[in-house]
Amino acid sequence: MIPHFLVAQLDAFLNKRLEGAKGVHVYDFRKPMGEAALAGHDSISWRVFRNPLSLFIGGISAVLMELAEPRVRSGVWDHTTFRTEPLKRMGRTGLAAMVTVYGARTTSEEMIAHVGRMHARISGVTPGGVSYRADDPELLRWVHTTALFGFLEAYHRFVLPLSVEDRDRFVAEGVTAASLYGVLDPPKTETDIWRLFEQVEPELESSEIISDFLAIISKLPLFPLQIRPLSGLMIRAAVDILPPGIREILGLQASFKLSPMGDRLLRFLGAQIDYLHLASSPSAQACVRVGLPADYLRPR
């Protein structure tokens, strides 16, 4: 079992990360009382997004796939603060995901509209001479799909195996948010995800930016001090869950292989963390907002 003092530290640490990401935008997931989120409290999404270990693993995996797409890579690397303020950038991205899943619908819609307006101002040309816009529905669909896959696969692998039906439910639950973000024809089943991977794979490529990203992420204090040594293991896990074809394109093979012992350790921790009640987490606050006990989502 995870010691109680570490549970309290993890709760405070994650809450501080979200507070630090807010800036002028303050989100209270307990308000407005009674208002539902884009996905219901009984959704697979509400279960998947409450586990910080699988979110970290899935988030890194998703970013690696995003950076494999040349236009997305240029948009992220040239028009965001990831290189100069990676922790704040990841905090804002994580907060956006939490608001999308757990925020009251009106709050989520307002935040997503704000993101859309920012995307509309971003455009450029890749080093290969291809023009891009951040609000291109094709690129938005790639970002949405890679995020779905990363979070789903990390939870399924390291927290709790999900049935085919639940995996499809998770993908379908993202359609509403994807449409609000400007995605046309978002995936509705896991089969749709794999079909898109097959379609886009010929356009993907490796880059020195992939190595730069992994170097940056390995040095960030993303967890409390006591479990920070596991960050390297979680990065390996993020690489390990990549689709084999994409992992090969990125050249992330033997040097990032997750050992059987590391796999077992992360499975153990992922399952243990899923039983934790982090009182200040967006998921706990959202449960209170819709009239449920704060620990409603904790497995019984």
Summary, kept brief:
Helix content is 61%, strand content 2%.
Structure description:
It is a single chain. The protein has 300 residues and is mainly alpha-helical. It has one domain. It has helices at residues 4-22, 44-48, 52-67, 70-79, 86-102, 105-119, 137-158, 164-173, 175-181, 190-200, 208-218, 231-240, 244-250, 260-274, 282-289; strands spanning 123-125, 131-133. The protein has a two-stranded antiparallel sheet. It is globular, with a radius of gyration of 18 Å. The model is unreliable at 20-24 (pLDDT under 50).
What structural keywords apply?
300 residues, two-stranded antiparallel ribbon, 61% helix, 2% strand
Secondary structure topology:
Elements: H1 4-22, H2 44-48, H3 52-67, H4 70-79, H5 86-102, H6 105-119, E1 123-125, E2 131-133, H7 137-158, H8 164-173, H9 175-181, H10 190-200, H11 208-218, H12 231-240, H13 244-250, H14 260-274, H15 282-289
Antiparallel strand pairs: 1-2
